[in-house]
């Protein structure tokens, strides 16, 4: 994990953000940030010391004293400026993201843009953080609610969306009056840090946003620190379950968006060309490294005959570095990810699935060292197989067959995960039946990746989510605020001998 001595002075270091200052860590433990297409070392990221992490939380706690009292309009104007800065720097942000994460430049811009939409939503906080009023609930008594910030909040984000998911978290937390400590993925923290710099430029005051780096020790400190009131997490089921249990035990609010196994049902009446294009993009785009990737296709009835055309569509996708024009599938984020995906493909073959398209070891001109796996398709998959049960997080599509729509729905509902699902059909009756009977939190009808826009909430369910409230939209305002109910009664001054009706001489 520690970088080689000869590289320590040759590449830049990723800084911490504490108290409004970019700080060089005093850590002795560092990790290299590596371009997954070339294995070039881009930077070194520190695993922050315990003292540095405590300093970040202390800075956030101190800043909360004044930030919580900042007028809501002033907070909104900061995010109006912030969204402008993100737009102006979109190309730079996408280039950084592609270099350290691997996704195509188009995907990288999409990553930033989906986060930008949440920033725009945060700028409307004046309309979102409204309480309620009931006048004269009893004789002269009014009751109203206040949505007040919690204090210091924290976020733990994954490698696969290093722009979007941090932007899901800290803008809404800060807009509602909280301060924030962010721990991005140590695999690709550079674009996150650039976004933090732009937040300071937009006017986020010192200490309101802090960034630390690290691994398990940093995660546990966030879960345990008594001054952190709420924790938001996106990542693997294993780590998310740990975060939820540990932080909840310590009395914190917690939301964890975790693993998935997203299915699409294809009925034979679906528009074939559009459906095949959607399947290919949703299964293999971003190299399959997204929690909403479409990893299972259930072909119903005569749609089973579409498999050869789906394979042809997948074969036509270009595998290369994200910076190369026309690239559809970039590299996996790390050598470890490449090894894991390759081993799961081998296990699928061993368990009897039919490998109708093998994407292992593609020849990518100019990038012999890249972590590439091309589009891979298994047919004849059963729910007992490892490739069906595990989240592969690579460009691998499992194809199952079903005789009827209800058989396909039953199969999906038996899977423990509930992040997203889709149905491809031209039948309104089938679509309505599907959306009523399916037990998954986010449903697409002829939409393969049904992630809602920020006016709504991300509503993954079952084993894909722990906690009641989603990470953006209306639900996250509730997550980042405490509802305080005030019941008040004012007496008529004349009844208590006061001068309510007395003429006042102003001379």
UniProtKB/TrEMBL annotation:
EC number: 1.2.1.27
GO BP field: L-valine catabolic process; thymine catabolic process
Family that this chain belongs to: Belongs to the aldehyde dehydrogenase family.
Domain of life: Bacteria
GO molecular function terms noted in the UniProt entry: methylmalonate-semialdehyde dehydrogenase (acylating, NAD) activity
Name of a matching Pfam family: Aldedh
PROSITE patterns, per the entry: ALDEHYDE_DEHYDR_CYS
Name this polypeptide is given: methylmalonate-semialdehyde dehydrogenase (CoA acylating)
Residues covered by the Aldehyde dehydrogenase domain: 23-486
Keywords attached to this entry: NAD, Oxidoreductase
InterPro entries referenced in this protein's UniProt entry, alphabetically: Ald_DH/histidinol_DH (IPR016161), Ald_DH_C (IPR016163), Ald_DH_CS_CYS (IPR016160), Ald_DH_N (IPR016162), Aldehyde_DH_dom (IPR015590), MeMal-semiAld_DH (IPR010061)
Origin species: Pseudomonas cavernae
Cross-referenced Gene3D superfamilies: Aldehyde Dehydrogenase, Chain A, domain 1, Aldehyde Dehydrogenase, Chain A, domain 2
């Amino acid at each position: 994990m520690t970088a080689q001595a000869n590289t320590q002075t040759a590449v830049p270091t990723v800084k911490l953000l504490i108290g409004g200052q970019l700080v060089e860590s005093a850590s002795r433990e560092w990790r290299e940030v590596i371009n997954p297409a070339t294995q070039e070392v881009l930077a070194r990221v520190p695993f922050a010391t315990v003292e540095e992490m405590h300093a970040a939380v202390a800075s956030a706690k101190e800043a909360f004293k004044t930030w919580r009292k900042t007028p809501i309009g002033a907070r909104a104007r900061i995010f109006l400026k912030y969204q402008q800065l993100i737009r102006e720097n979109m190309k730079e942000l996408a280039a950084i993201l592609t270099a350290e994460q691997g996704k195509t430049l188009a995907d990288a811009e999409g990553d930033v843009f989906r986060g930008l939409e949440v920033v725009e939503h945060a700028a409307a906080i004046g309309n979102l953080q409204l309480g309620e009023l009931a006048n004269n609930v009893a004789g002269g008594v009014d009751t109203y609610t206040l949505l007040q910030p919690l204090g210091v909040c924290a976020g733990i984000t994954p490698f696969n969306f290093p722009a979007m998911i941090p932007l899901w978290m800290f803008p809404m937390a800060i807009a509602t009056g909280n301060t924030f400590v962010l721990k991005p993925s140590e695999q690709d923290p550079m674009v996150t840090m650039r976004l933090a710099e732009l937040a300071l430029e937009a006017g986020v005051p010192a200490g309101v946003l802090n960034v630390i780096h690290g691994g398990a020790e940093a995660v546990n400190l966030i879960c345990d620190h008594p001054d952190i009131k709420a924790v938001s997490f996106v990542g693997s089921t294993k780590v998310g379950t740990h975060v939820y249990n540990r932080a909840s035990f310590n009395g914190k609010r917690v939301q964890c968006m975790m693993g998935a196994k997203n299915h699409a049902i294809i009925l034979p009446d679906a528009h074939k060309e559009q459906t095949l294009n959607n399947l290919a993009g949703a299964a293999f785009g971003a190299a399959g490294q997204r929690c909403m990737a479409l990893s299972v296709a259930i072909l119903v009835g005569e749609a089973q005959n579409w498999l050869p055309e789906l394979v042809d569509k997948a074969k036509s996708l270009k595998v290369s570095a994200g910076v190369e024009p026309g690239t559809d599938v970039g590299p996996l984020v790390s050598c470890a990810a490449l090894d894991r995906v390759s081993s799961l493909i081998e296990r699928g073959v061993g368990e009897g699935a039919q490998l109708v398209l093998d994407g292992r070891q593609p020849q990518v001109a100019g990038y012999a060292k890249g972590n590439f796996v091309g589009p891979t398709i298994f047919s004849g998959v059963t729910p007992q197989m490892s490739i069906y049960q595990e989240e592969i997080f690579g460009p691998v599509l499992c194809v199952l067959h079903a005789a009827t729509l209800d058989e396909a729905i039953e199969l999906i509902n038996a899977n423990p995960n509930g992040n997203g699902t889709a149905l491809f059909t031209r039948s309104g009756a089938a679509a309505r039946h599907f959306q009523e009977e399916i037990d998954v939190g986010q449903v697409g009808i002829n939409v393969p990746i049904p992630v809602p826009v920020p006016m709504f909430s991300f509503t993954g369910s079952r084993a894909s989510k722990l906690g009641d409230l989603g990470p953006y939209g209306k639900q996250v305002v509730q997550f980042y605020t405490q509802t305080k109910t005030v019941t008040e009664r004012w007496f008529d001054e004349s009844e208590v001998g006061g001068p309510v009706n007395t003429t006042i001489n102003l001379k």
